[in-house]
Write a structure and sequence with these properties.
Length: about 120
């Protein structure tokens, strides 16, 4: 049974930083795509950063230069370093994974496994 567990969310003032972590377990192989998404009430889930099995990262334009995603393949952990946070970054952040694909995307429908989400609040 696969499981994704996020941690590291919280409240921070604009301009601050947060670090999110996602621990993956139950996967047959160590190579699988992973991604971060976020969602606010009334809006669709938005892709933030996606990591291919070779470690290549694709970022949403809204977070380029501020967020850094990385995957520790040995620990099956996905990280998201968030800097220069803005109030519009406020959302529930979700970790996603899929073990049947090679190339990661920022499309929610491409992922079969999801974490429970962690809240990020950025105040102005």
């Amino acid at each position: 049974q696969v499981q994704l567990v996020e941690s590291g969310g919280g409240a921070v003032q604009a301009g601050g930083s947060l670090r999110l972590s996602c621990a993956a377990s139950g996967y047959t192989y160590s190579s699988f795509i992973m991604a971060w998404f976020r969602q606010t009430p009334g809006k669709e889930r938005e892709g933030v950063a996606a990591v291919d099995i070779d470690g290549t990262v694709t970022y949403a334009d809204s977070v380029k230069g501020r967020f850094t995603a990385s995957k520790d393949a040995y620990k099956n952990t996905l990280l998201l370093e968030m800097h220069s946070l803005k109030p519009e970054d406020t959302a529930v952040y979700y970790c996603a994974a899929d073990q049947d694909k090679v190339w990661a995307s920022l499309t929610a429908g491409d992922y079969s496994d999801w974490g429970q989400g962690t809240q990020v609040i950025v105040s102005s």
